[in-house]
Amino acid sequence: MPSFRKLTPMALLAATANAAFGPYFSTGPTASGVYIYSSTATITLPNSPSGAGSGYDLSLWVGMGTSLGDLVQSITDNFNNGWSVYAYTLKSTGPNSQEVIQGPSKAAKPGDVVRVEYQYVATDNYKQTVYLNGVAVSTLTTNDGKAQGWGSAVECAATNCGTVAAHKWTNVQIVLSAADPNYVRTLGLAGGATGSMTTSDGGKTWNVGTISIPQFTF
User: Fold this and answer.
1) Whose CA is closest to 174, among 50, 32, 56, 25?
2) Is the pLDDT of residue 176 over 70?
């Protein structure tokens, strides 16, 4: 399970005593007064990691950090050689405390196609929808403030997840509440991850296309 401590809009990956992270793509924060209105991303699930230890828990996800310190992060989770997918929010309840809010979980397998959509639906509320091979299998709406950063992660609950196969997030698009032409300048890449951002409407709609994550060993 994801086990972040405090999340800031500056980056989705925060220091944690319990989890380890691999390559990532990150953006944010948005310009003052601008927030993430919606996003979509698709992953074809890779094989389970090789050489993992007993009880390992690997998560591949894209998520959004919000103004309230929440992390909106639908999960593709590989636990002991099996995939599952579900909507998930890690909600900040204090400076050093969080609450897990999880939607229904659905079993999956390598080769399955998972699409994750985030949508601002009401004042400070985001709806997550997870599609498995085109069918909506998990939804969740939480009150999170306004999303100011978006990124991907390869997360191991400990350090025993072995070698994670290379994989890609495709058809990635981030739509902002208003144009932020400088949002591209917040792009960060680590661990050999690749990806780029383009806009054709002055910075409101950002087309990322494909985020490529290389093989990684914990």
Assistant:
1) 25
2) yes
